[in-house]
Amino acid sequence: MSEFLNGCRAIVGAANVLTDAADLERYLTDWRRRYTGKALAVVRPADTNEVATIVRLCNQHRVPLVPQGGNTGLVLGSVPDESGNAIVLSLSRMNRIRDTDTINNTMTVEAGCILEQVQNAAAEAGRLFPLSLAAEGSCTIGGNLATNAGGTAVLRYGNARDLCLGLEVVTAQGEVWSGLRGLRKDNTGYDLRNLFIGAEGTLGVITAAVLKLYPQPKAQLTALAAMQSPQDALRLLSIAQERCGATLTGFELMSDFCLRLVTKHFSQMRLPFPQSYPQYVLMELSDSESENHANDMLEGLVTEALEQGIIEDAAIASSIAQSKALWNLREHIPLAQAEEGKNIKHDVSVPISRIGEFIAVTDVQLAQAFPGCRMVTFGHLGDGNLHYNVSPPENASPDAFIASQRDINRVVHDSVHSFGGSISAEHGLGALKREEVRAYKSEVELGLMRTLKQALDPLNIMNPGKVL
User: Fold this and answer.
1) Are 455 and 204 in contact (CB under 8 A)?
2) How far apart are CA 370 and CA 348, in angstroms?
3) pLDDT in tens, 218-264
């Protein structure tokens, strides 16, 4: 492999071909630090031409490659396996914002741009890029698109797929497809853009994208509502959509146990209520008219929900600081769960109307099969996406509980399937769910996916072992 590595050095420079173990570690270990793969090297190209040249070299030497952005994924999609045969193709140096068009409301960015960088650049131009994730300070646009990331604003703006108009992609043969067209309408053949979005780097390497921008809202208001059940949360969602329409941009469900974990492990955080309730919903309105208009709308919604007995109490943020404090409760749930110890995560989606029933049925199934397990249930109720996580019983051995992961997954995923849902809503399949998904997709669907993979990547060098 010395000839191959020397070829890489000639393309990107010796300083950008990392082979020392100390330099490789952060690229080889997954976000949750539960798995570490192996690689020949980490190669860090500076532009699309260097990516294409590296891919052609990989073809010549039959070396697999694993595209990587911020390495914040949760399904082992951005780390190599343990064979040590692949390189990690890190796009972190490709972080330029190439163009901002405020008339067309688009921004062209390279794949290595950090999501927060794009959000800030849009704000500086007087625009909004609405994709928002807990990992936005470290995840990259390329990774967001490769996994079709969701986040907290999907209800209003859609997934990453919906926020992208065009792509630049290096194919598995090392050719460059330049599809950076900022068009809302383009009916000229197969939709290649959507083929690569969500493919987790298994069909090609996304190197740049044209993203949609939106006008900055005149006001953003946040409220936390307390209620008895997920069914009440669905009733609240229904009247919120009727009253607020597209102004409703966030609708997050959180159980009492989620927030008790947050206040337990982050003592500076407090709930704004004198007592606890079984369920909470965090709502956000983004209004293009005025703050007074948004405030009247939100207060009217809360009043109606209280009068109908849908909610028990509500706190409306009256300042940016209070709004941030409410969102911090939501954003700290994964951190608090990590502080509590090992857990088994599920990123699932079911039809919105059946979420309450799904939670009730699956909670009972898990309690019967794994007595004492604790459910950490939260997520984007407005688009049907739940993070339905399972923590071990108190004082139980975490390692023994994690050893039951396959059985727990089967209970949860079988239930998701019975409700007409998906076992991956926004995290992707990666290597972690690659085999699991075979139980829930038909052979026709899997066969079509294999046909696409074989046609576009016949040598199987693009992120092998992921998705399929």
Assistant:
1) no
2) 20
3) 999 999 999 999 999 999 999 999 999 999 999 999 999 999 999 99
pLDDT tops 90 at residue 134: no
Strand 97-101 and strand 87-90: pairing? Answer: unpaired
To which H or E segment does residue 95 belong? none
Q: What span, in angstroms and rounded, lies between the C-alpha atoms of 53 and 66? A: 15
Strand, helix or coil at 219?
strand
**Residue whose entry in the numeric block shows the structure tokens 């940016």:** 320
Tokens of 82: 């343990």
Per-residue pLDDT tens digits for 441-461: 999 999 999 999 999 999 999
Q: How far apart are CA 359 and CA 362, in angstroms?
A: 5
Phi, psi of 445 (to 5 degrees): -65, -45
- Topology of domain 97-215, per CATH? 3.30.465
CA–CA separation, 92 and 214 (whole Å): 26
| Extents of the domains making up the chain | 2-90, 97-215, 219-334, 341-439
| 100, two tokens | 């901002």
CA–CA separation, 453 vs 460, rounded Å?
8
Q: Which residues of 287-324 are buried (b: 16+ CB within 10 A; e: fewer)?
A: beeeeeebbebbeebbebbeeeebbbbbbbbeeeeebe
* Burial of 342: CB neighbours in 10 Å, binned 0-12, 13-18, 19+: middle
CATH architecture of residue range(s) 219-334: 2-Layer Sandwich (3.30)
Instruction: Give residue 22's Cα distance to chain centre.
Output: 28
State the fold for domain 2-90.
3.30.43
pTM of the model: 0.94
Q: Which fold has domain 341-439?
A: Alpha-Beta Plaits (3.30.70)
- Domains 2-90 and 219-334 fall in the same CATH topology: no
Identify the burial level of 403 via C-beta atoms within 10 angstroms of its C-beta, where 0-12 means exposed, 13-18 middle and 19 or more buried: exposed
